[in-house]
Amino acid sequence: MEGSIHRVRQVLQGRRPDRAPLFDLLRNDAVLSHFSGRRLDFDNAQEVVYRAHGAALDATRPAVRLPQPERCETLPDGRTMKYLRWTAWQAPRFYASPEEFAQERARYVETFDAAWNAERQRALDEELAFFARDRHRLGDLFYFPATRGVGIQPLYTAIGLEQFCLFMLYYPQLIDDLLECSALEAIAWCEHLPADHGIEAVFVSEDMASKNGPLFSLDWLDRHYFPRLQRVIAAYHQRGILVMFHSDGNLMPVLDRLVAAGIDGLNPLEVQAGMDPVQIHNRYPKLFLSGGIDVSNLLPFATPDEIRRVVRRTLEGTGGRLLVGSSTELNQEVPLENYLALHETALNFTLD
């Protein structure tokens, strides 16, 4: 939409834009068809998906996905990869014993070298080229590229949370070493960005909470996670890049720690887990927020009038520092008229 990049920059800089910017990932056939002006199918998916994001939103982040046929594949290691229309799920790897995991991952740690090399440079160049292609396809829309954090999420999702917790118990130093390797890679990535990298803000995903609170003890996080997060964020800041931190779930018990680590923004504000955008804004007025409109119950099941009331109340309470959108991504369960209620309310809401 016209003025989207400037509008989002205003929010990131702590200023009030002309209206509340719209932020989301659109994975909803009806919404994509409506805003692109074409019925979505597999043949026109790239054109329709990117055109709809540019027409409907002021900001987005990866992954801007295309619909895909549903199927299952067997990976070379025997695990299953299941593809649904808008998402994919990979079965975690199961080890025969904690010792098998320790032997494999200890070899990785022993051979890890943080020194920059041609392979890492080539990967960085390819990543920046991907960001540039996505930006070009999206048009005048602010783009938060997805980049590296401490790496706790990819580590536990690869092997499953239950195994991860078991290995934390059996091999605490190895888990710590793996997180350190990941943090060093993130810092090196920042340090080797070209001078003209053009990245204003990044999306760092570190899902670390459920609806009941953090997945790990505060003591463990204080010793192993937050000091590394602070180092990684400092590396982004050194390159003039703001960090929008993403985690589903209830982050209220660790929000002080996240802010102290240096995050600039927070996403997606899972309302059903207790992440109230107005409360968070009042507590941390310098933090920019994105998401904040419940997509678990409100957007799929409420009436358009109910949605309008919630969106207005949220925008009023967050003082213009909200990139308003669904509390994760706009999925197939949301009726078109309900998303239009959110969208039109944001477009018509002006900040005094």
Concise summary:
The chain is α/β, with parallel strands linked by helices and 352 residues long.
Search tags:
single chain; 352 residues; alpha/beta; TIM Barrel; three-stranded antiparallel sheet; 14 helices; globular
CATH topology annotation = TIM Barrel
Number of strands: 13
Query: Main sheet?
Result: 6 strands, parallel
CATH class: Alpha Beta
Number of domains: 1
Q: Which segments are poorly predicted (pLDDT under 50) over 5 or more consecutive residues?
A: none
- Order of H and E elements: HHHEEEEHHEEHHHEEEHEHEHEHHEH
Euclidean distance between termini CA atoms: 22 Å
Gross geometry? globular
- Work out the helix count: 14
Residue share in β-strands: 5-15%
Description:
The protein is of the alpha/beta class and 352 residues long. The chain has a single domain (4-66, 92-348), classed as TIM Barrel, CATH 3.20.20. The protein has 14 helices and 13 strands. The protein is globular and about 60 Å long. The two termini are 22 Å apart. 36% of the residues are buried.
